[in-house]
Every structure is written in structure tokens, then in C-alpha cells.
Amino acid sequence: MQPQIILLKEGTDTSQGKPQLVSNINACQSIVDAVRTTLGPRGMDKLIVDSKGSATISNDGATIMKLLDIVHPAAKTLVDIAKSQDAEVGDGTTSVVLLAGEFLKQLKPFVEEGVHPRIIIKAVRKALNLCVAQINELAFKIEKHDNEKHRALLEKCAATALNSKLIHQQKEFFSKMVVDSVTTLDALLPLNMIGIKKVTGGALEDSLLVEGVAFKKTFAYAGFEMQPKSYDNVKIALLNIELELKAERDNAEVRVDNVAEYQKVVDAEWQILYDKMAKIHQSGAQVVLSKLPIGDVATQYFADRDMFCAGRVPDEDLKRTQKACGGAVMTTVQDISDKVLGKCDHFEERQIGRERFNLFQGCPNAKTCTIILRGGAEQFLEETERSLHDAIMIVRRTIRNDSVVAGGGAIEMELSKMLRNHSRTIAGKEQLLIGAMAKALEVIPRQLCDNAGFDATNILNKLRQKHAQGCQWYGVDIMKEHIADNFEAFVWEPSVIKINALTAACEATCMILSVDETIKSPKSGGAEPQQPPMGRGMGRPF
Q1: CB 390, CB 165: distance < 8 Å
Q2: Same structural domain for residues 452 and 463?
Q3: CATH number assigned to the domain comprising residue 350
Q4: Residues near 34 by Cβ (< 8 Å), separated by ≥ 6?
């Protein structure tokens, strides 16, 4: 008998070979099932409650994947591709997870029959290259010089992105707002220049777009109501200074031997404060914003001089105001001049719902805007914000990459047809593998039908027939439970979404197929010690 050789630490979990690969694929399948039903205009929403007990209702693939606390190492790749799709394009997060899961599902029989994973990976890569080439060939290019057409196209893309969201009833209203907000930005289209503020109450249609900066009224002191609430052609002082009397330090000691000297100490402190405020007033600023508190003495002082002030302004709002209106955030009042003051055409304070908002409009420097969302529940507003984020990302992408394809499963059916035809020209195992990839692409239209409660087999047969006849833009028509030319129906998506989704899904598939062994080291320090039962002090049970 040969003695057993132990290489790894005791308790290490190793699993390898074909069963390991199949178990990884099965783990990915269960992840896909979690987001499968959220695809498309008739997709369902998920309610996820985290360990702290806070609930999130979402339809966004990436949000759901982030909130699922996944521990399986292979299944984590699906979370990563959903995150990468969200960061790169913004929309199509559910599609990318579905595609990756379906590729693995269709290739699983080949793995079980003993086809070497490397051969499968080669076929997947080949299919991906064919698909990307086909998308680039089919994609419809837009002429940018025609502004009206270009804007209409952006609105169509935003509406398609909002179609599958909670706010699809108001997609006309929001797609216009999203396009307006992105077109106010400068050439680099920085995302952080679009602020989204949420105010509960009111209807969704009460949401408004402010071309400029808007933020909630900060904590106000006495004298605040006497300040003017509206100015034209204002100068804005941005400060990082506290304008109130400081409480004495606890361990400070000032020895005085008569009341007059104590009075001098107090007067000196008041004088410093008044000097600061006088300098701000002389600079010509009419609106004073500070990151630190502005006390009631200062508030009253500014009110007497027809100036508006707000203390404790959040950092991001102060930075956006600085970028929009120019100027600089000052930490001293000694050299406030015109150079460091921001400017804007119009400032006003307006009541929106229960909140008051400070609005800065007509900002000369940067292009910035703020979307103020209204709506019922807190979670509903958060989901609306996530939906708008997707739409904003899509519009940004479309402005940069000027080609679109038809959505609603049309492009997937066309690619599926192309791959199926191509596979018949290849001899050997690749023919079957590329055929399986072609079948896997049909998951998008099939899932769209399933989620809407249609007969998926019937609709897919009609689609295959249409695509075989050369009608390349035919996809699922959710409204009529039938098929339609989605290009004519303006269900448009930037081609970059599809390319990105296919590339990410194929990468994830190849990565999972190339893993044939998992070695899990035991947690250091052995098993976690059991907690003593809760009881009265010293851990004694009741």
C-alpha cells in the first residue's frame, strides 16, 4: 500500500474535472433565473431586503446583481459583467447576464459529452467576431448635422431605455427631459454635472429640469425670512468660513481682573465677525454660500443689506455651483474680489413640494443642469433615479457613437440567422457549437415573450420565417402580441450596447469554461467560534 501524499492544508476543498465545470454552469443558471423575469417592457420588479432590513425595489439588472450577496466564485463573474455593462453603457445589464447564462446552458451538453473546453472557447470567440462584424454592417448611421433628426433619434433611444422601467408610462415626458439635460452639457458630457434631487410628494409629471444648479434650502437662522429671495445678474461668494461666534474652547483660560477688560475680549470677538461680514458686503456679492455654518448674527446682517446667505451647503452642491458659475471657494475674506466671485443670470428660491430649493439659472461657465424628481414613495423615487441614470448613459453613448440598431429582439434574431447559416458552411465540431450559439441568441426575444405572457414558440417561428425572407429588423411587438418591424416602430438602441453585451457575455462564458478546478483554502483560525448565548451579563443564560 502506498502512503497517501497530502499537499494541501487539511480542510482545503478541491473539486476538479468535468463535474466541477458542470456545477459552475449550474450555479450561473440559478443567478440568471433571478433576473430573467426583469427583461423588457413587461418585466417584473424584484424586491430585495438586505441584512439591515432596508428594502430596494428594482428592475435594473446591475442593481439586483449588486444587492444579491453571491458567494459562489464562478457565479461572481456574472455580477462583474453586469457591473461592467452598467459602467460602460448604462443599459442592457439584464440582457448581458441572460446571454452569458444562455450561452453556458446551450454549451453544457457538449461539455458533458466530453468536448474539450478549449475547442468550445475557440468556437465562442469565432461566433463573437462574426456577430460584431455583422452588427457593424447592419447598424444605421445617423447624420449629426441635421439637429432635428439627431434630437429625435436621441429621444427614441432614451424612450427605448425607459420602456422596460417602472416609469414607462411617462417615457415621452422623461425622454425629452433626459435629452434636454444631456444636450446642455459640454463636449465631454461629464455625468457629475447632471444633479438629480428627489422630493417626495406630487406626481411624476411635476418633475422639472433646471438649467443650472439647484439644491435644497439649508438650515436657516433668525433673520432669514427678511432676505430677498430673487435676484438678476447676481454675484456669488463661495466660502469655506464659519460666520458665527465661536464658543470658548473648554480648556481655554483668560484671566481678567475687571469687567472692562472682559468686555474688551467680547468686543474683539464681535469686531472680528463684523469685519469679516463688512468685507464680504464690500466685495459686491449678493448671494453668500458657505460650507460651514452662517449664524443668526450674520444672517440678520446680510438681510439688512439685501443679501442672501446659506450656510452648511453640501460639498458636491458647492462644487457644482463653482463649476457652473465660476469663481473660487475662499477660505479667507481678506482678498475677495471680482475674480473669485461666481456669476449667474438669475437666482431665486422656490417652493417645490414641502422643500424650498435655491435655483441658479443662466450659468455662464460650465454647462450643468439639475433634475428635480417628484413622486410618491421613497423607493419609487430611487427606482426612477436609477431608470433616468440608464437613459442618460444611453443618450451620452448615442451622441458619441452615432449608429443604432433595432431593439426588441430584432438584432438578436438576425445574428442568430447569420450564425446558423454560417455554421452550415463549416465541417467538424465547430458547426454544432456555432449552431448552439445561434440558438442561445434567441433567448432575448423568447424571454421578452415569456415575460409578457405570449406564446414564445409561436412568435419565434414567425420571426425566423420573416428573417429568412430578409426582413432583418423584425422583432417582438409587445403591444399587439405579434411581430413588427421594430426599426419602423422606433425601438432603437445604440449598437454599442449590443456589441458590449455580446463581448462581455462571451468573455464570461470563456472564463467559466476555462476553469476546471476550484481550490478553496480553509478559513484561517479554523471554524468561527460559536457565540455564547445571550443572557444576563457575563454570558450567563436566563
Answers
A1: yes
A2: yes
A3: 3.50.7.10
A4: 46, 64, 68
Residues contacting 119, CB < 8 A, separation 6+: 429, 430, 433
CB of 398 closer than 8 Å to CB of 153: yes
Q: What percent of the chain is modeled with pLDDT above 70? A: 92
Q: Is residue 540 part of a domain?
A: no
Q: Does 233 share its domain with 330?
A: yes
Give the contacts of 189 (CB within 8 A, at least 6 positions apart): 182, 396, 399, 400
Q: Which residues are catalytic?
A: 60, 93-94, 390
pLDDT of residue 211: 82
- Grid cell at residue 15: 473539486
Is residue 496 within 8 Å of 404, Cβ to Cβ? no
Q: How far is CA 207 from the centre of its chain?
A: 19
Asked whether residue 346 falls in the same domain as residue 459, the answer is no
How many residues does the structure list for the chain? 542
Does residue 266 fall inside a structural domain?
yes
pLDDT in tens, 311-334: 888 888 888 888 888 888 888 888
C-alpha cell at 161: 431605455
Q: Is residue 72 part of a domain?
A: yes
Residue with more model confidence, 415 or 71: 415
